[in-house]
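If it is no trouble, can you show me the amino acids of a protein and the tokens describing how it folds?
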Amino acid sequence: MDILYLLVPLSVVLVFLILTGLWWAIHKGQFDNMEVEGSRILKDS
């Protein structure tokens, strides 16, 4: 039962970090033009 006092706050922090990373990626434009970025790696430049 004592381990829950450690695991619950750690899981809340982990969820907060994941949501912060998703928010950052959306606002930095990571998902704006997915078709071009997907085909760019296939082109041999």
In short: The chain has a mean pLDDT of 89. The helical segments are 4-27, 34-40. The CA atoms of residues 25 and 31 lie 7 Å apart.
